[in-house]
Amino acid sequence: MTFEYSLAQLTVLETSPVEIAKIAAECGYDYVSLRQIYMGVKGEKIYDLRKDKKLMQELKGILKNTGLKVLDIELARIFDGVNIKDYEPAMETCRELGGKHILSSIWTDNKDFYTEEFAKLCDLAKSNGLTVDVEYVPIAGVNNLKQTVELLNDVNRDNAGIMLDMHHIHRAGDNTEDIAKIPKEWFHFAHLCDASKEIPKEKEEMIRIMREARDYVGDGGIDIASILNSMPIVPYSIELPNSAYIKEYGLKGHAQNCLDKAKAYCDKFVKGRE
Q: pLDDT per residue over 204-218, tens digit each?
């Protein structure tokens, strides 16, 4: 079985598009997953490739010379007051770099609103030849598998998909039987990481782990193999922020550990859903 891996921005959050691409290529990743829609979180720096032409050309050079590809661009959030058109420049960047997917998540409880806005997002992405993949997050508006499946059925767009994150599946208490029922065409990529089997009771602790203390694949308590074997084989974007590991190993060392651990685990345990 051949697996493909991407280095996600959150794993090495402070890097520029050029820096993360260099790290990904040197470590042996197949893809890079870039953040071009910024969220204002701690440690996040803004590198707008549509405005910084020099940075864009340098990134294109790295992609061309190394064979590294862009998998997706994040994060097109749906929230109260969102203007979907604001995401068009990032979509144009994704298309220009050869990417295929826009990552999205829902941060409002207003179902009618987020369904309508997500449909608009899908339509805008389709005009750029991109899919839109929903990542449910345990602390967000759409926070479990059931809500996500309902959303995708309601919008009924052929470029809409689901992006499953191992941490979020476990924290939401979802099961592999329900994952196995999801149409295969909804899957385009997934997020790999691990975490403790015990689910924090405090929201603050869950957020801390999610943003800065995830485990290497196979080192935590999540049954990752069962999850991956209930879905088709897709590229795996390693989203594994861990500030302690970065302090110990450096950005490149951490990214390399992420890839090596994931490869060893998937090669041993993952066959995927037929």
A: 998 899 899 999 999
